[in-house]
Design a protein that fits this description.
CATH superfamily: Gcn5-related N-acetyltransferase (GNAT)
Number of strands: 8
Number of helices: 5
CATH class: Alpha Beta
Organism: Actinacidiphila acididurans
Order of helices and strands: EHHEEHEHEHEEE
Strand order of the largest sheet: 6-7-5-4-3-2-1-8
Distance between the termini: 18 Å
Oligomer: single chain
Shape: globular
InterPro entries: Acyl_CoA_acyltransferase, GNAT_dom
Protein name: GNAT family N-acetyltransferase
Strand content: 25-35%
Radius of gyration: 16 Å
Number of domains: 1
CATH architecture: 3-Layer(aba) Sandwich
Length: about 210
């Protein structure tokens, strides 16, 4: 059984180590790591309630992702698309020793289910690598826009929200308390509406 839970302040060292391990894995394969982002990602634990989430397997953190709600990045989306209810995934980092479980895919499917439970239409994400595009396309995400930049080429992707009933057999979700100024939705356990700082751009295939 996997556990999906909100990050807490005491998770900072764990998240920093996760990013460093992933960076080592990438660098050994001649790919750029993201060591410079480790401290920034770790510092967000516990400071943005319901925005930073961790995936655990047998008590070990094997995945990290950021979930943004009710707003999205300004690049690559039309005003009409930004007005649609959606969840936005970013900064996904996974432990390479647990690739057999595809933690990145599991976290994205949790978000697809979560969005459907909240009555949202889409789960969206973006990336800058064609290899990452192919990875997520194989998992149900379609390219919506190919933005040439500057400063860099960005692909925006989306997958329709839909219930994933089978997740209850493999994934337990720890629900955060709603923020004091956030309304509780009909489905309960909402992600708090908190605007995070500028996102970290993470290279490498996230899975």
């Amino acid at each position: 059984m996997f556990l999906m839970r909100p990050a807490r302040a005491e998770d900072q060292d764990t998240v920093r180590e996760l990013v460093e391990v992933r960076s080592q894995w990438l660098e050994r394969r001649g790919l750029p790591g993201w060591r410079d982002s480790a401290r920034q990602l770790a510092a967000r634990c516990g400071t943005h309630q319901g925005t930073v989430w961790l995936l655990e397997r047998a008590g070990q953190v094997i995945g990290h992702t950021t979930v943004r709600r009710d707003f999205g990045p300004p690049w690559g989306w039309t005003p009409e698309e930004l007005a649609e209810p959606a969840l936005y995934l970013s900064d996904t980092v996974t432990h390479p020793a647990h690739r057999d479980a595809e933690p990145g895919s599991l976290m994205s499917l949790w978000a697809v289910d979560r969005a459907a439970r909240e009555g949202r239409a889409w789960v969206r994400r973006d990336c800058t690598s064609t290899a990452v595009v192919a990875h997520w396309a194989a998992r149900g995400f379609a390219v919506v826009h190919d933005v040439p930049g500057p400063p860099r080429r960005v692909f925006t992707l989306a997958r329709r929200a839909e219930r994933q009933a089978w997740l209850r057999d493999v994934l337990r979700v720890e629900t955060p308390a709603p923020a004091a100024d956030s309304p509780t939705p009909a489905h309960g356990g909402a992600l708090a509406v908190v605007r995070p700082p500028a996102r970290v751009r993470c290279p490498g295939t996230e899975r």
